[in-house]
Design brief:
The structure is a homodimer of 372-residue chains. With 372 residues, chain A is of the alpha+beta class. Chain A has 11 helices and 16 strands.
Chain lengths: 372, 372
């Protein structure tokens, strides 16, 4: 049995005990992957406070999961009804007939919630509670091997941005820019991606710029934001570049943004909070005259997911998170997610960093220049 | 004002009236796109029974959405608290102070549900109900222009499979196979994708084979399943191919699968139900000796989403859907989603078809052969 998972399950049990949870019923792949080594859709993991794990997976997937995952019990099911009954049998097998079952409130839809709390799944005397803060607390400080995986993903992200920027030309679509980045990242070892954002021209002003068929024009700003997944871990890297000559306003905003971003990165250290970092970055952007152009929280965690705990306190409600504790060595943070949105254009630069005992190290290494 | 959206909103109002809903609060991009012409994450649309539309979007996105969408009111918000207050103001503006508000129970997580039903968002005297069946009923029969968009997406899917198959070689990773398909699809006009599945060798036996770093070996089966998005519409195309010589068992299973798939496609006609089609395909596969290898429902709808209503009745609980009505001309169906999973390998072939007054037409045209 793998010591990594035993150790994680022991930590999980202690956090569950403090939170008064008797078992977890997980369906979010990222959480299942962390605690068992395998995470996939249409599957579940039941984890007891004592560290026992039961998996339910599609009947087709039993052999594949058995090769990858750490678990005590595994059941293959044929359909949703089978899944419901398997959950019930696993809960009874572990003696979870009363007490509190932790569920992922930031992942379960109303329909999935109805399924997992159906009386044929969850015993009626078992109550449910949100386990999101527990999983966040568990995954927030990265083990050295996790940091190394994120570093590898950061290297793949750099290759993606390099490939895309080297191919940029007037007339190319945003989607084709994404194609160059993703192709290069898959060649470099990415198994998959979280969404690749590419926006250009006036579309650099929007908050979540998924690529479209818009064709690049001379003088356009272009924003590209990539999140490869390599060996199950991600990284977050965003660059803004200009096709031609930026206006002096754009160049100034970019320079001001970089100064604020670097100062915020430099402030990462054990004991500091995400709120402290956000306040610093926003203050510097306001001081350089961009107070009206800031949108969104500048800091979030990175790991198995490209956006995970610690999450920004202002967005706590949306993500179902409570106040985040102070940063410790091993916390991985993306800095620069806010962006400046001036009206007809925007700039954003984002890098992935790890907090260390001494301060921090930036894992994403692509140059931060507006005109390459 | 665009007649397409006015017409859709009128139909929506009639369905809402039958279901006793006074307004909808939508946050699922596919539903917002259908009713307004724009769908994006971190945004909402409120739709009244009388066909009025209010949009709330990130403050950065107001100009972009205004250029694309049909609406009566639009508000930009700075954060989640702003979003909650904007929802409340729009509901009050439309006079929704009591009655029933439809929400997307198959999309809203517990946390998002808590946000949109927060007393600062939804007036306390307004009750909520699941609007999923309403949106499914609304989107199920495609307009001719929608079918043409799905046909275009089907052509792009074909280009993706062609590109991937032409590059297959021993030693290539599954992720690199996905890279070839996605690159070609973006070149051909795809703005984006739903997940590309690529599995090989023993991994062809799993139900949802996301690509990994596994390298192709001589004699491997390879399953590739693509879902490009072009002009907002998708298509579903899956092929299984063999690197080298398939075993006689594999070749027989593939041939039997094709016969069952084609017979099921041929049975598509107005008046038939998804349950009828599923029963036919499963019966043929059982009759040819593959009863133990079938996994999953063979039929689902295709449109803005690659998997949408009509959804298979066995999976109704998971998707939050009720029994689906009989097929009408204009319903677009993927046939072949079940697959045969023999143990160490699997085969699956999937095509997108439109029901017509006369019968059906297949929109995906890539050849169905095991050894190209």
């Amino acid at each position: 049995m793998d010591r990594t998972y035993r150790h994680r399950l022991e930590r999980c049990g202690r956090i569950m005990e403090n939170a008064g949870l008797d078992a977890l019923l997980l369906t979010k792949p990222a959480n299942m992957f962390y605690l068992t080594g395998d995470g996939r859709l249409c599957a579940y993991a039941i984890v007891t406070r004592g560290g026992q794990v039961a998996l339910g997976v599609p009947a087709t997937d039993v052999a594949d999961v058995s090769n990858r995952a750490h678990f005590d019990e595994i059941t293959g099911f044929a359909d949703e009804v089978g899944m419901i009954h398997a959950i019930n049998q696993h809960l009874r097998h572990f003696g979870v007939g009363r007490g509190t079952l932790g569920l992922e409130y930031t992942f379960l839809t109303q329909s999935m919630m109805a399924m997992v709390t159906h009386p044929h799944a969850k015993p009626e005397s078992v109550t449910v509670a949100d386990a999101t803060p527990i999983l966040s607390a568990l995954r927030m400080v990265k083990e050295p091997a996790e940091v190394e995986r994120i570093r590898v993903a950061a290297g793949v992200a750099t290759k993606g941005i390099e490939a895309a920027v080297s191919k940029l030309h007037v007339g190319m679509t945003e989607s084709q820019v994404a194609a160059e980045a993703e192709y290069a990242m898959r060649q470099a070892g990415a198994e998959n991606f979280y969404r690749t954002y590419v926006s250009s021209g006036p579309r650099t002003n929007i908050a979540h710029g998924l690529p479209t068929a818009r064709r690049l024009e001379d003088g356009d700003l272009l924003m590209i934001d990539v999140h490869p997944v390599v060996h199950g871990y991600s990284a977050d890297l965003c660059r803004t570049t200009c096709l031609g000559r930026p206006t002096s306003e754009q160049a100034q905003a970019f320079d001001d943004y970089l100064l604020a971003q670097q100062a915020t990165i430099d402030a990462i250290a054990p004991g500091v909070t995400v709120a402290d970092l956000e306040a610093r970055m926003h203050a510097m952007l306001r001081d350089s005259g961009h107070g009206d152009s800031i949108f969104g929280p500048p800091i979030h965690g990175v790991g198995i997911e490209f956006e995970e705990a610690p999450l920004p306190p202002d967005h706590a409600f949306f993500h179902g998170e409570k106040d985040m504790p102070a940063i410790q060595a091993g916390v991985v943070l993306s800095v620069g997610n806010c962006g400046l949105y001036a009206g007809g254009w925007g700039v954003r630069v984002e890098d992935t960093n790890v907090a260390t005992a001494e301060g921090r190290q930036t894992l994403t290494e692509y140059p931060r220049v507006l005109t390459p």
